[in-house]
Specification:
This protein is α/β, with parallel strands linked by helices. It has helices spanning 26-39, 58-72, 87-100, 117-129, 142-145, 151-157, 174-181, 194-199, 214-225, 229-247, 253-263, 282-300, and strands at 9-12, 43-46, 77-81, 104-107, 135-140, 163-168, 185-188, 204-207.
C-alpha cells in the first residue's frame, strides 16, 4: 500500500475538454490541467461523472488521461476513474492508467443491471487485478449508479489489499463516518457539504464544482484545519449559493461551468450530447455566477 497521506485536500473532478467540433482536445485538456495545478489543488480526479465518461469511447478516455499525465508530471495526485459498463473495457482502462503511473484508479459499480453484492465485488476485483500495483478507490454514488455501497460489500472489498478508500457521493454525511470506521480513507463527494464531510473524517474532497471555484474550497479547508469553523462555514454557505445559482440554468451544469471558465481564458468547449448545452437565456446565469465567484474570492481569499 502506498503512502496514504498524499490523498488529502481539494481534488477537482476534471472536466472533459472538447474542440469546436465536439472531439477530445488534447491542447485544451492540458491547459485545464495546468490551470488547476496553478490554482494550488492537491490532485485531479480524471474520467468520472464530471468528465462525461459514460459518453466517451475507451480510446477517448485514454487520450484524456494521457494528456493530463503528460502535463501534470507529478505536480498533483492523479486518480483515474476507469469504470465502464463491462469488465473488459474497465480492465483495459485500468491497465492503461497503471502504465501511465497514476496514483490510484477508481470505479463506480456496474450500472443498469442490479448485480448482487458478490457480482459487484467480482467486477471491482477484476478491475483491480488489471492494475495490480495501483491503489483502488470505490466510488459510491447511489443516486446515479442505482446501487449503494453497504458495510457488508465494503468488508468483502477490504480483502483486496489494493483497496484504500471510498469516494463517497451519497448525501448523508453519516456514510463518511461508517466507511472511516472500516479503517479506510474517505473523500467527500457532495460539494454542498464539503466542510461537513471533512468534520466527519473525510481526508479531502473530490467534487464537480471545485474546478470553477478552487480557491473557495481551498480557503474553506484552510480555515477548518486551523479551527476557524465560522469562517469555513461562511465560505461553504457562499459555495452552496453559487451552486444553486448555476443549477438554475436551463442547460447542463457542466456547460455552465465551462462557460464560466471560458470567461477566465480557460477553454473546455461544450458538453457532449445528450447533455443539454447552454440556452441563450443561460448567458445571464453564466455572467451572474462568474461575478458571484469573483466577489466571493475577493472577499474570502
Amino acid at each position: 500500500m502506498s503512502d496514504l497521506s498524499k490523498y488529502c485536500g481539494v481534488i477537482p473532478a476534471f472536466y472533459a475538454c472538447y474542440d469546436d467540433n465536439g472531439e477530445i482536445s488534447p491542447q485544451r485538456t492540458r491547459a485545464l490541467a495546468q490551470y488547476l495545478v496553478d490554482q494550488g489543488v492537491q490532485g485531479l480526479y480524471v474520467g468520472g461523472s464530471s468528465g462525461e465518461c459514460i459518453y466517451q469511447s475507451v480510446e477517448e478516455r485514454k487520450l484524456i488521461l494521457e494528456n493530463v499525465m503528460a502535463q501534470v508530471k507529478g505536480q498533483a495526485v492523479i486518480i483515474a476513474h476507469v469504470a465502464c459498463n463491462n469488465t473488459a473495457d474497465s480492465q483495459a482502462l485500468a491497465a492503461h492508467a497503471e502504465s501511465l503511473g497514476v496514483d490510484a484508479i477508481a470505479s463506480i459499480p456496474p450500472i443498469y443491471f442490479h448485480l448482487p453484492e458478490h457480482g459487484i465485488a467480482q467486477y471491482w476485483n477484476d478491475i483491480s487485478a488489471a492494475a495490480p500495483s495501483t491503489d483502488f478507490i470505490i466510488y459510491n454514488i447511489p443516486q446515479l449508479a442505482g446501487v449503494a455501497l453497504t458495510p457488508s460489500l465494503l468488508r468483502e472489498m477490504k480483502k483486496n489489499p489494493r483497496v484504500i478508500g471510498v469516494k463517497n457521493s451519497s448525501m448523508p454525511a453519516q456514510d463518511i463516518q461508517m466507511w472511516r470506521d472500516e479503517g479506510l480513507i474517505v473523500f467527500n463527494g457532495p460539494d454542498e457539504q464539503f466542510i461537513s464531510g471533512l468534520v466527519m473524517g473525510a481526508c479531502g474532497g473530490i467534487g464537480g464544482t471545485y474546478a470553477v471555484m478552487p480557491k473557495l474550497f481551498l480557503k474553506a479547508r484552510e480555515h477548518l484545519c486551523a479551527g476557524r469553523v465560522e469562517e469555513a462555514r461562511q465560505i461553504q454557505n457562499e459555495i452552496c449559493r453559487i451552486i444553486y445559482a448555476m443549477c438554475a440554468a436551463h442547460g447542463n451544469l457542466y456547460a455552465v461551468m465551462k462557460a464560466i471558465l471560458k470567461k477566465w481564458g480557460v477553454e473546455a468547449g461544450g458538453v457532449r450530447k445528450p447533455l443539454p448545452g447552454l440556452a441563450e437565456s443561460d448567458r445571464a446565469v453564466v455572467d451572474a455566477c462568474a461575478e458571484q465567484i469573483q466577489a466571493a474570492v475577493a472577499k474570502y481569499c
